[in-house]
Fold:
Amino acid sequence: MSSVYEINKGINKPIEFKGLKAQYITYLAVGLVFLLVLFAVGYMAGVPVIVVLLVIGLSGFGLVSWMYKLSHKYGTHGLMKKAAYRQVPSAIICRSRKVFLEGLVKEVYGNSEHNRPDVSGSGNSIAAKKQSEK
Structure:
């Protein structure tokens, strides 16, 4: 009596296995390997087998439940998007006008160095030069 589990990955679709999507399959596999190593270490250290089995069993159940929860909540790319969103700063602090002036110079004069005004604060007004060119 053998069971055949089919992993179907259609064209441009993420891999899915028993409801787990994409990277959550990998996370679950890594977690289960870690629990296997933890079982071996506990068994070899002389911890009573019933204690090791209870700890590993409860941890395994928690791991599987957590992965299914994450898979259903965030989907294929949602967890990565959430992690990326945490990297976005809440505010951008700029204490100098130089960044904006350099951007305006590139917009007006392009990337060439010819006829480019100095934006280091020497008193030349970019807006005045822009008006005089029109």
Notes: The chain has a mean pLDDT of 78. The longest strand covers residues 16-17. Residues 1 and 44 are 34 Å apart (CA to CA). The first helix runs from residue 23 to 44.
